[in-house]
Amino acid sequence: MSLTGEAPAGAGTWIAGAAPPDGEVPPRPGLPSRFRLQPSGLVRLPPAASGLRVGLYGGSFNPAHAGHRHVSLMALKRLGLDRVWWIVTPGNPLKNPGEAAPMAERLAQARTCAAHPRIAVTGFEEGIGVRYTIDTLRFLIRRHPEMRFVWLMGADNLASFHRWRGWREIAGLMPIAIIDRPGWTLKAVGSRAGVALGTARIPESQARVLADLKPPAWTFLHGPRSFLSSTEIRRRRKAASQQS
Description:
Layout: E1 24-25, E2 43-44, E3 53-59, H1 66-78, E4 83-88, H2 103-114, E5 119-122, H3 124-128, H4 133-143, E6 148-154, H5 155-159, H6 167-173, E7 176-179, H7 185-189, H8 192-196, E8 218-221, H9 230-243
Parallel strand pairs: 3-4, 3-6, 4-5, 6-7, 7-8
Antiparallel strand pairs: 1-2
Helix pairs in contact: 4-6
């Protein structure tokens, strides 16, 4: 189903020209046809306001853990952000979909884990039918051109960033903050994407202005690192269940 500006079948709660329910977004013309609305015709996004500085932290969150929260709190402080949105993806194209817990379960667990007034958890990607970060970011920029977004990701993701669909365009859509992870510091900076985007890197001491910069622009945040891993948590849970 495409976003054509016409109310899709079954959409009876939103009337063109009227204000949508709080936190929900009506169909909007001009978006690529690959964006598919939920049957209700509405996509629920976290609260937004003009000029808000928001860090976007996407992932499977399978499961969410204290390391995700640690990264978010660091980003809020070091980047001078107003909010961090955890974008729980329906499925990571680079991971085995069979390992993911149900979407509703991951969302609920992520909200419990986040437990912070400035961290919002959303699963809107499922509502618009996208799986790739590039499409998610295009959608958000079109919806909220008045906001200042920063894409957040771990150093391990920078090391494989060149495998992401449209990675160069992603870097040109919004600033990026890389958060250090154990064992990935040098690998990330020396990776294909790290080298290609080297001239766009700003000193860590200037991190608070990152959200105000025209992309491509990125910085690498060092500091206390979390050794927690969703993969390791799943492995331990599986081993425990086999022993019981």
